[in-house]
Amino acid sequence: MASQKSDENCMDSSTEINIPAVPAENNDQSRNDPEYSDLDDLLTDSTSYYNNAKKYWSNVSPTVDGMLGGFGSISFIDIRGSEQFLKQLYKQKPAPGRKWALDCGAGIGRISKNLLLPWFDQVDLVEQDEHFCETARKELADFTSKLGTVFNSGLQDFIPEEGRYDIIWAQWVLGHLTDEDAVQFFVRCAKGLARGGMIVIKENFTTSNVVDVDRTDSSVTRPLLQMKQLLKQGNMRVVKEQRQTSFPKELYPVYMLALRPIIKN
Predict the structure, then answer these.
(1) Is residue 42 part of a domain?
(2) Is 3 among the domain residues?
(3) Where does the chain bind S-adenosyl-L-methionine (predicted)?
(4) Torsion-angle region of residue 109: left (phi > 0), alpha (psi -120 to 50) or beta?
């Protein structure tokens, strides 16, 4: 799922939806809790943190508008920005292959349908909400020959097959992972990459140096610097970074980061 949220502190930035629970495609405009000190309290019980997110998304409509928190109209702009970014990644050397892709927090398959399936021979999806998984299978019925496995799992539990994926795409979902689980997710995804493969994350980021907490959907929105610190802990390096443009100004800034594993001597 991938949810979008507004940023009252962002006066000159554009963004799309914010992070969803553990799927990757929903948008929630609810205000983030201004009490940043509540962060530790919110994450103390990770079981409750994930269960609350799961409960939230179970009540979200399995539609594009539902996935984008009422901002379904920005879907085209989002996909166009992602496609342009993806094209630039294939100018890198070595370029990723185009055989297998993984859509993390896939929701109802919006990104798979409009971005990944036209690009790759096979696409797997991972989504925690069973109803969204069922909807995704229906939405992607025209891509039967290219649709791989739809994994019904939260990202905190998902283990990609080693050496399988040319591109692993995670959008508006990492805010539903604790810091520790986000780091371990990067570690597992690095092992899941094929030779020359990349991970792409597309997320909302705060315009301050503090984490915004949203108890409504049980998620956090991190500063970009903190995310880069988590990536380093997860043995990942940023090879390309770009801000999404043309989103409504009241939304959080959204950045796309292309990642490759850090090569250790």
Answers:
(1) yes
(2) no
(3) 105, 110, 155-156, 171
(4) left
CATH number for position 114: 3.40.50.150
Q: Which domain holds residue 44?
A: 36-259
**Is a pLDDT exceeding 70 seen at residue 16?**
no
Count of domains forming the chain? 1
